[in-house]
Amino acid sequence: MKVRQAFNSKLFYRLISLFFALLLSFYVTSEKGNTTRSGNSGTFGSSLVSNKTITLETDLKLNVNSDKYFVSGYPDVVKVKISGPSALVIAAKNTQNFEIYADLNDLKPGVHTVRLKDSGLSSELTVKIIPEKITVQISKKKTKKTAVQVRYDSNRIASGYAAGEAYSSQAYVTVTGAAKDINNLDKVVANLNLPRNANETYAKNVALQALDESGKVLNVVISPANVTATVPIYTASASKRVPINLVARGEGVSNMKYSFSSDTKTVTVHGTKEALSKLNRLDVPVSITGVTADTVENVRLSPSQSGITAISPTTITVNVSVSQKEASTAQKQNQASSQAETSSASSTKETVATDDSSSEATSSSSTSSQLSSSSSSDEAEN
User: In b/e form, how buried is each residue of 183-206, taking b as 16+ CB within 10 angstroms?
Assistant: First the structure.
């Protein structure tokens, strides 16, 4: 009974009226806002006619004969600013079924500046590509297969440990680029950054680099671009005594012969058992660059092979003897032939000189006879 009285009261109807008034006010305000944003008095399809602007990043495509030419200098990614009806802009963003490209098909090797183009976007959209133009280098393409070298700092290996032969998950890779860069390619390296005081085998995925002879990084494409580089690290507790082998290092003076001797005949090498099992002698390079006379050199023995940690003694004294090279058999024959030709030429000159003297003597004798005859005739006349 009390509930029925509440529903029939004036207060109830006032509350209901206030509620609907607020609801109507909210609806009108909302529709007014939509009309202002869309610029259209209608409410139907307001989201379709409102404008929107977005900026996206997308891969840059190149239209070029990739079997014949290699292109460098272009950005991998560009920005594209898209403006227009919201529905079309949102669709372009969600699907990204468009592309930004540079048409290089009609261009020859050299440096070119080209305008970027778009395809796949609605004509109702306004498109701005950033940057609008790019400068590219088009070169003749060349490919080469090259071995991978793993490089690391051996000073980061803990004392008492040694590294085995480093290797990568890919022994050979394919390097593609401009012909001039491929011709200058010296090596492909995987630089492995060992942790300090490394005392166990270390492996990591690293990016490859193509270098020329001076160590400059070349702008080429390496496939695969990354490898897993591994440096085996072992306990270096073994030692072995081996003979030394003195060998020349550098370029000596021409026509000079070099020989080496040392009071030290053997050395003790420390390292891993695996490395020492392969070592039967230690090659010791001795510099002969610019050496023209007998000399004595102090040569430092440094570990240069994988798995070798130390050499004792660390320095040895080497006697360098210098002598004149003997002429080879061919050189001797050439010298003999040259001497024979010189002797023959001298004999020919003497013969010619003798013949000339004989002619002069004959001529002189003939002249004397004529004078004698003339003299006799004169006496007879008298």
Answer: ebbeebbbebebeeebeeebeeeb
Distance between CA 311 and CA 130 in Å, rounded? 61
- Which CATH number among 2.170.120.30, 3.40.50.720, 3.40.30.10, 3.40.50.300 corresponds to the domain 47-131? 2.170.120.30
Between CA 320 and CA 289 the distance in angstroms is: 12
* Residue ranges of the chain whose pLDDT lies below 50: 1-3, 28, 31-48, 345-382
What does the pLDDT look like over 60-107, one tens digit per residue?
Answer: 999 999 889 999 889 999 999 999 999 999 988 998 889 999 999 989
- Domain 238-324 belongs to what topology? RNA Polymerase Alpha Subunit; Chain A, domain 2 (2.170.120)
Close Cβ partners of 170 (under 8 Å, ≥ 6 residues apart) = 148, 224, 227
Give every strand in the sheet of 282-287, ordered side by side: 282-287, 238-249, 266-271, 308-312
Report whether 149 contacts 171 (CB < 8 A).
no
Side-chain-side CA neighbours of 152 within 13 Å: the count stands at 30
CB-CB contact of 299 with 263 (8 Å): no
* Cβ atoms within 10 Å of 350's Cβ, excluding its own: 9
- 273 Cβ partners below 8 Å, 6+ apart? 238
Strands 133-151 and 69-72: antiparallel
Domain residue spans of the chain: 2-38, 47-131, 141-235, 238-324
> For the whole model, what pTM was predicted?
0.52
47-131 and 141-235 share one fold: yes
The residue type of 8 is: N
Query: Alpha helix (H) ranges present in the chain?
Result: 2-7, 10-38, 46-49, 86-95, 179-183, 273-277, 329-381
CATH class of 141-235: mainly beta
- Pair 203, 228: CB distance under 8 Å: yes
Rg, Å, the chain Cα set: 48
Q: DSSP class of residue 252?
A: -
